[in-house]
Amino acid sequence: MSGQEDNGWSTAVNGVKLTSSSSSAYVYVDNQSMSLLEVPNVDPTFNVEEHDFRHMSMRDPLFACSVLQDAGRAELSAEMAVRVEQAVNDSVLSLGITLDISVSLIFPTISEPTLYATKIATSEAEEAQRRAMHYIFPPQVQRSAPQSHMDVASLYATLGPAPQLNPPSLQANYQPHQLLPTLLPFQRRSVAWLLSREGKAINDSLDVVDRNVDSDLPLFWQKVLVKAADGTEQELYVNDLTGAVSTSKPSDDSPRGGILAEEPGLGKTLESIALVLLNPAIGRNPSNKSWNADARIFMKEVKTTLIVTPASLLQQWVDELKLHAPSLKVLIYEGWSKVKVPITESDLAVAKEERAKAARKAKARATRAELAAAKSSPSPALAMARAKGKGKAKAQDDNTTEMDVDDAESRADAPEDDDEELLDWCSYVNQFDVCITTYNVLQQDLGVARPPPNRPRRTNATYVNIERSRSPLVMCEFYRVLMDEVQMVGGGKTEEMVSLIPRVSSFAVSGTPARSQIGDLIQVWKFLRVDAVTPRIWARLLKPGYADQLVQLFLRYAIRTMKASVKDELTIPKQTRYLVPIELGRVERHVYDQNLEKALLDLGLDARGVAVSEGWQVDTANLRNWLRKLRGICTHPQVGQLQNQGDKLHKPGVLKTIGEVLESMKDQNWRNLMEDRRSKVQLMTETAQLYQRHEQHHTRYQTALEILSQAEKEANDVIQEIEATIAAHDQDGRRLKAQATAFVSGQQGVGESSAGPSDDKGKGRAMSEESDDLPRNAAGEEHRVKRRALVARLRECQITLHKVTFLKGDVHHVLGNTEEETAAYEKADGLRRLLLRGTEETAERAMAYLAEEGNRLDEKEMMIEVPYLGAGGIRSSLLMEEVNEKVDELLNQQSALLWKWRTHLVKLLTMPLNSKGEEVDGMEYGRSLDAQGEAETYLQVYAALLADRREALTAERTLLAAHDVREKKSRRTKAAKKAELALMDEDVMLAVGDFEPQPQDEALRKELNDQRKAFLDDHNPERAIRSIMVELSHIAAAIMRKDDPEKIIATQAADQLRNLLASQAKLMEKLQADLNRLRRTFNERIQYFRQLQEVSDTVADIEWEGQIAEAIERNVYETEELDVNVNTGKARQRYLEHLAKSQGEGTMDSDEESCILCKCEFERGYITQCAHVFCEDCMKAWLTRERGKTCPVCRVAIHPDTMQRFVIGDKSAGQAAPPRPVNNEPAPKSTRRIEYNFIDPDIFHDVNTMEALGSYGSKIQTLLRHLLYLQIIDPGAKSIVFSAWADSLLIIEHALTRNAIPCLRIDQSTRKENAVKKFKTDPNIQVLLLHGERENAGLNVTCASRVFLVESVVHHAFEIQAIARIDRMGQTRPTEVFCYYAEDTVERNILDLAARRGQSLYTKDHAAGTLTAGPITAPSKSGIDAPKKRAQKGDFVFKTEDMLAIFFPHLFEDIEYLIPADEQSQTAPQPGSSQASQPIAGPSRLA
């Protein structure tokens, strides 16, 4: 067979030829081949990447066939014919070449697996066969995909409802009798489809029968007819995805189950219940068991349906089952550790044995009781009580509820019935029709669900307790497993646990099974156990070339009924959706603008979205983080801080008003400003030091002096400002004291007038006595903390100033300026004394106290008179001699050494801290190390000697003393020192410093320890005075005669020793107190010398890296940067103070509404860091002047970057905030007008007139007023509030509670009643607060008629799930949705982006009517740019392009909608966005 077209071709399969007319010829010259003609690619448009081919050569099917020939799976043959064509002219003869190529498939090799020596060869052969089969036998599709690149929207568009039943009258058969509601026609069709996926159907007799198995081919297979070599037709089966070929029909082992993807609100729960009722799995019982090879356990059949649901929906499932199918018995499974019945058969045997033992004991007790009662007949009252008990028990047995619900708690509370038969888990769960558990429980059970690992065992060893507990869920084969809200599965532990649960059929139930991207559905196919969809095949199906096969997969396993398709069968009331624009307050606007500026700086972009540096690359993760932060600020400035434990600048969990947020911003900005100013002084000082070392600079000392003078002025200014702040703070402290005193006085008056003086209990008197101190409350503690921080900052600045003045004295010394040198050194010395005054006074007080208290000790008091005891009797003489010897040779010697060491210690610790009048050379701390090191050594051995003396008296030693003298290996690391200090109390001395011990100190310690230990060599430490006293007492007690001389001597000696121990105990207490004084004095001296060294170290010589000129240049550059930061900080501080001043009124002063230069009123202007206000035109004109770099009023240096912009007047009149020019080129703005369905202006005006308590920010305050407004116009109406932030839910809850609006959060559950159920049943609760990302799916809350979305949503799949909580079957009232957003923020840009893509729910053409989850509500992209290592969840933006479009919408706008920069200010806002007039402020970008 030949063809005439250039690219036509044919091959043959067992004699069936496929021929090509493409030409090819080679000419051989000198054994080298030259291509004269080549066969072109017969399929040039084929895209290998879209069809998941890794080898680019597979584009040509002829090449693929040649690979098959090399692999022995096919044969190629070719025939070429030359024909004469019509001559072009008389001199040229035209020839045509026809090439026929035949491809024959070799059986059975072509149908065998491709297994070769290397993976590369195997992969190439597989791809070659798949490519050849794809070209020879093109896939036959049931329904074409709407587009080559499938996304969630197009996927949903391909799915349809359940097919019509034939005949339609069969629909009536699918209404279960036990189901109380009547199913709608489309619901019955869905139930019929579910039943068919289990291989069942209902016949005309209403019997459940096996469904006739269709002769459909397995998934992705097609049947083709070919002619064999002998001319007969032969059937072949080809797999479209793998290229596999088979001569016999493949077996269809597709699993039972499917995906029920009905649009939210159409009754998926009801359809699932109907399935359980129609197909109850009759005949299944635990007696049938089989081996589960995957779990390596025997599993038993049960009839139960397992439903896995999010924890928030568990109670709803129980309620729905009880309401609609009370005949079903329901069990709640809470985890393997909470199962109250025996799990395994061995556990059952043990339980039966224990019950038998208990029964025998009870029988024995009853027998004894009967024998005891036989003597007398029972009283009538007792008989009646027994009869009453039996009757009550019988009544309890007969009292059955409408539906039996069993859980762990109810079983734990119920009394055990001895007559009840014990069952193992599988038999027990088989009694129930439905078992409900949650995803969290599945994760907890995974550890015991996995099969135990195979470990090697020794053959000659006996192992015990090698059996481990297993999860009950893997021990029984459920009839079906139903995963509710399957998109919640995600992956990881839940996905693995689900795969381990045995079941006959599997159903995934969700209105949005793919929340964000199609790739997420891989876990659904794993759950359904569709073996044909392996991870590799799934990745291939996601390729554009296999979009039709992807549709084929979903058409087989999924149905999706849309509200629009069954609108004639529905009775859902109309819904209307509104946008509510919110103008941020001045403080919120400043926070937002400030963070937007930080975001742009961090991202390396200007306000136009243009990169500020070459080679810029977008940081997607950083871009996403900033977008999320800005979205949170739009709701409330504290979003992200209330529950963030890592934020050190804010107290977690403390909710602030907007005024308090402003105060926090002021404090933080002031702290940053002071730190920048101090850093600037330090850099200037270092620069001056560098100049002094720069020998090539001829005027280096004069330059250094000039810089130091500037630094001194700057440091003095900073110190003065901090001192003024401390003075103002102290004034606030006095006001707090006065308020506390007045409050206490009032409380005293109330107490005296009501309960009398006795009821005060001294509290008021105690407070009045401490009236000089701050109150002991949160405000007082905050005041103390802030003052300590201010004092510490003041000290840091004073240290910096000390360095400046000291170095200035050095420079004057070099220059020969004697008077200036003396003045500088005197000033530095005064600063040094000021800095050290506190620790010096503390140390001197400790030294004086030590000297005063030390005089109260007397050496004679420490000595004991010897001989202490007289001569003893026969049995006591040795003991009394031992006492005298210990007193003379041990205790008195120790006392003498203690006194000697103490005298030396007092001398060391009372040495003057400094020599008055002597010069300070910076080495004071170094010279004190010797004395302090010696004192430390003496203190350590003194404490050890004191412990020795205590041990000699009582044979006891304190834990601290034992630690001090314990002999151990030398460990002198810093970690060892810290560990030692950790064992000591506050009185233990501080370490001398972070220095290694000096050799002389170690030698002294050894010498002193040797002296101490010399006393102990001849004395047994276990033979203490107390021990001898006890032995003498025993001797006296052993003699019975009272007048026995031995008894009298022993008794008197024991009494003398008892008196000695009592007196010595008092002495030891005094010595211990004295030791504590020594240690405190030592610590105070150390603190003094540390601070002295800290001050001295600041004037040390400077060190630098590289050339000194480069170091100077670096310092100058950093100083200039800090100068810019300081100016910016001053401007921001002025502006924040300006905001604080006008916060109460919300407007500017009348003087500030007119420009200082032109004296005219204005609407747009700027405020400088010196707090002077100018109109926009005057400031721009001033800055263009040559000398326009200072303030026109006070001549303070100004910079465009340090000014703040603002707007006053009514924004609805057409004014806009001053644009943010960059290099005199502001960011363009779109003129596209989007017709949104805004809230009615009159209603919004009435909402804003409502009075509400508290200050919670513009958006939450408006929401609060809106809910208060609804209380008036629609009393008793319920609403749901969704927010994407946990912090905002916390703030909203606080606001509602304060304004007496009853509300609940989803996590506020009681033992038997969760929040949703309480919200439904309690008419007083008006608002339910839900998290927009975690709690937006599955809930049925039709008792509410309004939904409030606090933020604009990025992914409208979240939005539709949230809205569907009220827009669903069972709703009886018209519903409303209010979406709040902040104007002139990323939230408005998010809405505009969705509207431009046709995905908005709030444009006028989509804002009314029942919501449909069609293409407009699904994301249009798949895949995540720069994903995190951990799976990302929630409402975040996937694509970098989308995030940039939200930050800079003009970059992605059509050029026709962009206007010139000079016309931007005339652009009117969108209708309906007018708000109360408030100035808007933010960082300026004037050129």
TrEMBL record:
Location of region: Disordered: 370-417, 744-781, 1212-1231, 1462-1487
Biased composition (Low complexity): 370-386
BP GO terms, sorted: DNA damage response; protein polyubiquitination
Compositional bias segments (type: Polar residues): 1463-1478
Coiled-coil portions: 701-728, 1054-1081
Domain RING-type residues, every copy: 1155-1195
Entry GO MF terms: ATP binding; hydrolase activity; ubiquitin protein ligase activity; zinc ion binding
Bias (Basic and acidic residues) ranges: 758-781
A Pfam match: SNF2-rel_dom
Gene Ontology cellular-component annotations: nucleus
Entry keyword set: ATP-binding, Coiled coil, Hydrolase, Metal-binding, Nucleotide-binding, Zinc, Zinc-finger
SUPFAM superfamilies to which the protein is assigned, alphabetical: P-loop containing nucleoside triphosphate hydrolases, RING/U-box
PANTHER family: E3 UBIQUITIN-PROTEIN LIGASE SHPRH, E3 UBIQUITIN-PROTEIN LIGASE SHPRH FAMILY MEMBER
Protein's UniProt name: RING-type domain-containing protein
